[in-house]
Automatic annotation (TrEMBL):
Residues 427-535 form the HD domain. Keywords: Hydrolase, Magnesium, Multifunctional enzyme, Nucleotidyltransferase, Repeat, Transferase. Signal peptide: none annotated. Residues 571-590 are annotated as: Disordered. Residues 712-774 form the ACT domain. This is [protein-PII] uridylyltransferase. SUPFAM superfamilies: HD-domain/PDEase-like, Nucleotidyltransferase.
Length: 774
C-alpha cells in the first residue's frame, strides 16, 4: 500500500468523523450517530485492509472487539483491533500492521491493537477473564472470514467449556467494578459504563447468556433493551457534548445531555437513567443468581439429579432450589394479594424471589381493589420490618411492575432525584432506606406499624409542586383508608406525614428547656401521644437515611431532649391498657379444656376460644402447644383472674395449609397440662428458624396498673416462634402472677401487655424478661 493511499484514508477518517460529530442531535440522534460511525470505520478499515493485501484467502483477518465489535461505536471511544494471522514471518507482519495502524494514528483515533495467531488469541482469552469477555463481542471487519471464525467460534466454545472454573473470577471482577464505580441510580454523577446498572453489567448478562447459564431476560424482557439503549444514548451524547471519551456523567453536562435526548433537564435525565440502570442492575443480579444455581447442578448425571424439595413458606408460596416460588396449587388468577404474600415470605426466609415467579405474578395476578384485608396489611408490615432484606425484595416487586399495583402513588416518586443537597439518594430509594433504618427502631415505639408506614410514605408528596409535607398528607389519606387502618390510626398517620419535619426543624430553633416548646409541639400534633412517639423515631430514621452529615451527635442530643420534654407533657390518646373483656366462659362441672376454632373464609386466619384449667402455668403450656401446631397468635385477650383458669379469645394464623383439628389441639393441651410438654414438642420448638432477621433488641416498659395493685409490662419485640411462651415462662420464673394479657402482632412487631400482681410484680421483672428475649 502506498504512503499516499494511507494519507488519503487517514484524511477520510478524520473528515468523516468531524462531519458526523459536527451534526446536531436534532439531525443525527445518538443511535444514528453510532450507526454512521460504525459504517465509516468499517468502510475505511476494509479499504485499508484491501490496500495491505488482506483478502478472503490471504491468511490474515482483521477482527474488531469492544464497541465496534458490538456495533456500539461511541464518538471518542478507541478502536480495539486484532490482526490475526497464520504463522507469518515477522517482516511481513510488521509491513501489514504498519499499513493498518499508521493511517489510524494519523486520523487522530485512539487505537488499541495487537497482532496474534489463533492459538495466541485463545491462550490470552483463557488466562484473562477480561480478555475472554472482549473476544465474545468479536466481529470480522475485513480479511479471511474462515480464519476469523476460528478465533470467534473458538473463543465462545472455550468460554462455555471453562465458565465453571472462571465463574468466581468473573463475579469477583464484577463486584470490584461495582464497588469502585457505585450504583448509577444512587449517584448524582454516575459512571455510565462501569457502575451497577451500566453498560458493563449489560455485557456481563450477554456473556452469561452465551455460556447458557441464563436466558438474559428481565421480569419484563422488553424493558431491558430499552434500558440499555437509554444508558448507551446518554453516554453517546456525553462524548459528543464533552468532546472526550468520558464515562462519568458530571453535573455540568447533565442539562445538555438531557436536552439532546429529549428528556428535559439534568434532574429529568437522572430520573430516566435511574429507571433504566435499575432495570439493568436487577437483570444482572438475577442472571448471576440463576447462573450460580445452574453451575451448582452441573456434573450430576441424569440418574443422580433430583428435583429440590419444596418447603412451604406461606399460603401458595414455597421455597424451591434456594428461591421463593409459587406452590403448585397457588390461586394466581384469583388472588390479588399473592405478590405481597410472596414478598413477605421472601423477606422472612431471607431468600430471593424466583424470576419465573415474578413473571407469572406480573402477567396473571389481578389488580388489588378496595380495602385491604388484615392479612395483606400484616404481610406488608412484615416486608417493611425485614431490615436489609427489604431493598432486594422491593426491587424485585418494583422492577416487575407489582409494586405499582399495591401502591399506585409510588409512580410519582420513582427515581425522582432529590433536589436538597443533603440527600444522597433519590426520593424513592430514600424512603426505602428510611424504612430499613426504622425497622431497627420498632421496639422503641408503641406503634411499630405506624412507624414503618410513616417511614414509607413521609416524602410521597415530593412528586407535586409546593410543600411536600402538606401534599403528602393529602395523598396519604386515601392510602391509609385503603390499607384498612382504624379511624384513629388514619388520622394519626396523616398527622405523622404532615408533621414529619416538626422535630427536625424545632430542634435547632427552640429551647427544649422552655416549657413553651413542648407545649407548642404537642399543640401542633393535637396532643396525639402516639404521633409524638412515632415521630421521635421517624425523625431519627429519616435523618440517618438522608445522608452522613445530617444525624450528628449534637442533633441527636438536641432531639433526645426535645422528645423527653414532649413526653412529660399531658397528651391525648395515652393508650392506657385496660383488662380484656373475654367472651369465653367457664363450663359447668369439673374444669376441662375447651377449644373452639372457627375459620375465617378461605384465608389462613382463624378465631380460637380457649378455656383451660389452671393459671399462668396453663398459659405457658397453651402457648407452647399452639406454637407446636403452627398456630401463630396474631391477637389475643387472655384472662387469668379468679375464679381461676384461663379464658382466651384469639386470632391465630397458620401461614399455610389447614389448621389442626380442634379435638387434637384439646387432647394435646390436656396431656401437656397434666404431664408436661412431650419431648417431641420440646425438640420441635427448639429448632432454630431457617433465617433470622437482623436482631432488634426487645424493650420492656413498666407502668402501674389502672385496674388495681401491680404492674403492667409492655413487651415490644420482633416476632418469632414460641415468643409468647418464652415471655410467660420468664415471668413465672420471676415469681410474678399474671392476671391478664393483651397480645398484638403488627406484621413482625410484637406489642404484648402483661398485667402482673403478687410478690413477683416488681421492677426487676422487666430485666428478667429482657434477658430471656436477648
Amino acid at each position: 500500500m502506498s504512503e499516499t493511499f494511507g494519507i488519503q484514508r487517514a484524511r477520510a477518517l478524520r473528515e468523516g468523523r468531524a462531519e458526523l460529530l459536527g451534526a446536531s442531535p436534532e439531525h443525527v440522534p445518538a443511535d444514528a450517530l453510532r450507526d454512521a460511525l460504525c459504517e465509516l470505520y468499517e468502510r475505511e478499515l476494509a479499504l485499508l485492509a484491501r490496500g495491505a493485501g488482506i483478502g478472503d484467502r490471504s491468511g490474515f483477518v482483521l477482527v474488531a472487539l469492544g464497541g465496534l465489535g458490538r456495533r456500539e461505536v461511541l464518538p471518542f471511544s478507541d478502536l480495539d483491533l486484532v490482526l490475526v494471522h497464520e504463522q507469518r514471518p515477522d517482516r511481513e507482519l510488521a509491513r501489514i500492521a504498519e499499513s493498518l495502524w499508521y493511517p489510524l494514528w494519523d486520523s487522530g483515533i485512539e487505537l488499541d491493537h495487537s497482532v496474534r495467531t489463533v492459538d495466541q488469541c485463545l491462550t490470552v482469552a483463557a488466562s484473562d477473564v477480561c480478555a475472554g469477555l472482549s473476544l465474545l463481542d468479536a466481529r470480522v471487519v475485513a480479511g479471511d472470514a474462515d480464519l476469523g471464525a476460528l478465533v470467534i467460534d473458538g473463543a465462545r466454545r472455550q468460554w462455555r467449556s471453562q465458565i465453571a472454573s472462571r465463574y468466581d473470577d468473573l463475579v469477583d471482577a464484577a463486584a470490584a467494578r461495582r464497588r469502585r464505580a457505585g450504583v448509577i441510580a444512587h449517584l448524582t454523577e454516575p459512571d455510565l459504563k462501569n457502575g451497577a446498572g451500566g453498560l458493563r453489567d449489560r455485557q456481563l448478562v450477554s456473556a452469561l447468556t452465551l455460556a447458557h447459564l441464563c436466558d438474559g431476560r428481565s421480569a419484563r424482557p422488553e424493558d431491558l433493551a430499552t434500558a440499555h439503549a437509554r444508558v448507551l444514548d446518554a453516554r453517546t451524547e456525553l462524548h459528543r457534548i464533552s468532546g472526550r471519551a468520558r464515562e462519568v456523567l458530571h453535573a455540568q453536562y447533565g442539562d445538555e445531555v438531557g436536552r439532546a435526548l429529549g428528556v428535559g433537564d439534568r434532574f429529568e435525565l437522572a430520573r430516566a437513567l435511574g429507571d433504566a440502570s435499575r432495570t439493568i442492575a436487577f437483570t444482572t443480579d438475577q442472571a448471576l443468581r440463576v447462573s450460580c444455581a445452574a453451575l451448582s447442578t452441573r456434573g450430576l448425571t441424569g440418574l443422580l439429579r433430583r428435583s429440590p424439595a419444596r418447603r412451604p413458606l406461606a399460603d401458595g408460596v414455597v421455597e424451591h432450589a434456594g428461591e421463593v416460588a409459587l406452590a403448585r396449587g397457588a390461586r394466581v388468577e384469583t388472588d390479588p394479594w399473592l405478590p405481597l404474600r410472596v414478598a413477605s415470605a421472601a423477606a422472612r426466609a431471607g431468600l430471593p424471589i424466583a424470576p419465573a415467579t415474578l413473571g407469572v405474578l406480573a402477567e396473571r395476578c389481578p389488580q388489588p381493589e378496595g380495602r385491604w384485608p388484615a392479612a395483606a396489611l400484616s404481610d406488608l408490615l412484615v416486608l417493611l420490618g425485614s431490615g436489609d432484606m427489604l431493598p432486594p425484595v422491593f426491587e424485585a416487586l418494583d422492577r416487575s411492575g407489582l409494586w405499582d399495583r399495591l401502591l399506585p402513588e409510588w409512580s410519582g416518586i420513582r427515581d425522582l432525584p432529590a433536589r436538597e443537597r443533603a440527600h444522597v439518594l433519590p426520593v424513592d430509594r430514600h424512603l426505602i432506606q428510611t424504612v430499613v433504618v426504622a425497622s431497627r427502631l420498632t421496639t422503641s415505639v408503641r406503634r411499630a406499624d405506624l412507624l414503618l408506614l410513616g417511614a414509607l410514605l413521609h416524602d410521597i408528596g415530593k412528586c407535586r409542586p409546593g410543600d411536600h409535607s402538606e401534599n403528602g398528607a393529602e395523598m396519604v389519606r386515601p392510602v391509609v383508608v385503603r390499607l384498612g387502618l382504624d379511624d384513629d390510626d388514619d388520622e394519626t398517620l396523616v398527622r405523622i406525614v404532615r408533621h414529619h419535619l416538626l422535630f427536625a426543624r424545632s430542634g435547632s430553633r427552640h429551647d427544649p428547656r422552655d416549657p413553651a416548646t413542648p407545649a407548642m409541639l404537642m399543640a401542633v400534633l393535637e396532643h396525639d401521644a402516639v404521633a409524638m412517639d412515632v415521630l421521635a423515631a421517624l425523625t431519627e430514621a429519616d435523618s440517618i437515611a438522608t445522608g452522613p452529615t445530617v444525624w450528628t451527635e449534637g442533633r441527636a442530643a438536641a432531639h433526645a431532649a426535645l422528645v423527653a420534654a414532649c413526653r412529660a407533657t399531658p397528651s391525648g390518646r395515652p393508650g392506657d391498657l385496660e383488662p380484656p373483656a373475654v367472651d369465653a366462659t367457664r363450663p359447668h362441672g369439673p374444669p376441662d379444656v375447651v377449644v373452639d376454632l372457627r375459620t375465617r373464609g378461605a384465608g389462613t386466619r382463624h378465631d380460637v376460644t380457649l378455656v383451660v384449667p389452671g393459671g399462668g402455668r396453663s398459659l405457658e403450656v397453651a402457648a407452647q402447644v399452639l406454637a407446636f401446631h403452627r398456630l401463630e397468635v396474631v391477637d389475643a385477650r387472655i384472662d387469668l383472674r379468679p375464679p381461676g383458669g384461663m379464658r382466651a379469645t384469639m386470632t391465630v394464623s397458620t401461614g399455610f395449609g389447614a389448621p389442626v383439628d380442634p379435638r387434637l389441639l384439646a387432647k394435646d393441651l390436656r396431656r401437656s397440662i397434666d404431664s408436661g410438654l412431650p419431648s417431641t414438642m420440646r425438640s420441635a420448638l427448639g429448632r432454630a428458624p431457617a433465617h433470622r432477621p437482623p436482631d432488634v433488641p426487645a424493650s420492656v416498659i413498666v407502668s402501674p396498673r389502672s385496674d388495681g395493685d401491680g404492674l403492667i409490662l409492655e413487651v415490644r419485640a420482633r416476632d418469632r416462634p414460641g415468643l409468647l411462651a418464652t415471655i410467660v415462662s420468664s415471668l413465672l420464673g420471676a415469681g410474678a402472677r399474671i392476671d391478664w394479657v393483651l397480645v398484638r402482632t403488627r406484621g413482625s412487631a410484637v406489642e404484648d401487655a402483661f398485667a402482673l400482681s403478687g410478690r413477683g410484680a416488681v421492677l426487676g421483672t422487666a430485666a428478667v424478661v429482657e434477658a430471656a428475649l436477648s
